């Protein structure tokens, strides 16, 4: 006779197969997989770009240790901003609760009235104020660390950092602070001028207008739309510059190609306006530069730790 316990076990096996023996498993979420892979690829790109910058700086061991110490302090300051404020956590929890009440109220199909929207608005105001205060405090700390960082680097190294543009494959100019500052924009214009100089005169008379159209179209696609009047001005400027370049001797072009290429870039009015607006922001972090963005970043820490050897005591930062 089969015991009751055995019957119970048998029933469980029939109802719910054992794991690994025909057990139903949830299929992987393709979107989640893509997001995970994208995050990993993006992180590796950032890591490679940071390594390219560090390679271009040629830091000596003492400098590397000082930069590492400063980057660690910057990371600690960011961490403190997140977890060091008990008020922030309390405000977030209160805002979550109040926003939940507001959502439930407006989900009924009518605007919320009375104390619920008032309390949600008050929570939002307090939260934004606290976050702004914490960000300003962090900005002050990073500005102080940036001053110490600038004392660690040579003027040439600081220039390389400020002009650095994130890259997977570094440009050959990265080790040259003067050319590195120019390379980001001008190298493509130098190459364009070199090709224009190579066009035979007979072909040039028929192609010059088309090339001017391409120049304007490229700018409108990559930056912003020009008005008809601006296009006329830019067309004339482009044709005058190309004629000037074509009349140069090979020696003159080699000597002046960088400066003339800088003149080819049209004025970016959007960038100029954005900069003007940024300067007027009441809570703008002033005195900030690429030094903090690139060398006081958390990604710098594991890279320099690996180079200096784990467990090694980095040199103290310059005061």
Q: What structural category do the secondary elements indicate? A: mainly alpha
Strand residue content: under 5%
Query: Approximately how much helix is present in the residues?
Result: over 70%
Order of helical and strand elements: HHHHHHHHHHHHH
Stretches with pLDDT under 50, minimum 5 residues? 12-16, 178-185, 311-319
Q: How many structurally independent domains?
A: 2
Gap between N and C termini: 87 Å
Q: Count up the helices.
A: 13
Q: Radius of gyration, Cα only, in angstroms?
A: 30 Å
Number of separate strands: 0
Mean pLDDT: 81
Give a quick account of the main beta sheet: strands, pairing sense, barrel closure.
none
Q: Shape, please?
A: extended
Give an overview of the whole structure:
74% of the residues lie in helices and 0% in strands. The protein has 319 residues and is mainly α. It folds into 2 domains: 46-170 and 284-308, no CATH class; 177-272, no CATH class. The radius of gyration is 30 Å and the shape is extended.
């Amino acid at each position: 006779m089969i015991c009751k316990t055995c019957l119970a076990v048998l029933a469980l096996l029939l109802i719910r197969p054992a794991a690994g023996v025909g057990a139903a498993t949830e299929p992987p979420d393709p979107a989640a997989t893509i997001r995970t892979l994208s995050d990993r690829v993006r992180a590796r790109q950032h890591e490679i770009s940071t390594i390219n910058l560090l390679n271009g700086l040629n830091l000596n061991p003492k400098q590397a240790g000082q930069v590492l110490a400063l980057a660690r302090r910057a990371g600690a300051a960011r961490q403190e901003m997140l977890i060091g404020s008990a008020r922030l956590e309390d405000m977030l929890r209160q805002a979550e609760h109040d926003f939940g009440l507001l959502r439930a109220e407006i989900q009924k199909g009518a605007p919320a009235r009375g104390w619920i929207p008032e309390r949600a608005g008050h929570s939002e105001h307090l939260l934004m104020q606290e976050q702004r205060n914490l960000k300003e405090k962090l900005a002050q700390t990073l500005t102080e660390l940036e001053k110490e960082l600038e004392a660690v680097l040579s003027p040439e190294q600081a220039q390389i950092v400020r002009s650095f543009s994130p890259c997977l494959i570094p440009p050959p100019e990265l080790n040259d602070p003067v050319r590195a500052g120019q390379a980001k924009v001008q190298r493509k214009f130098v190459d364009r001028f070199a090709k224009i100089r190579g066009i035979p005169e007979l072909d040039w008379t028929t192609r010059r207008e088309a090339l001017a159209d391409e120049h304007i179209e490229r700018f409108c696609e990559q930056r912003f739309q020009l008005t008809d009047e601006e296009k006329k001005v830019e067309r004339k400027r482009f044709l005058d510059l190309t004629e000037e370049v074509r009349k140069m001797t090979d020696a003159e072009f080699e000597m002046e190609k960088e400066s003339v290429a800088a003149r080819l870039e049209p004025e970016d009015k959007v960038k100029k306006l954005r900069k003007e607006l940024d300067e007027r922001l009441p809570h703008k972090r002033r005195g900030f530069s690429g030094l903090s963005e690139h060398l006081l970043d958390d990604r710098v820490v594991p890279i320099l730790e690996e180079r200096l050897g784990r467990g090694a005591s980095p040199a103290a930062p310059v005061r």
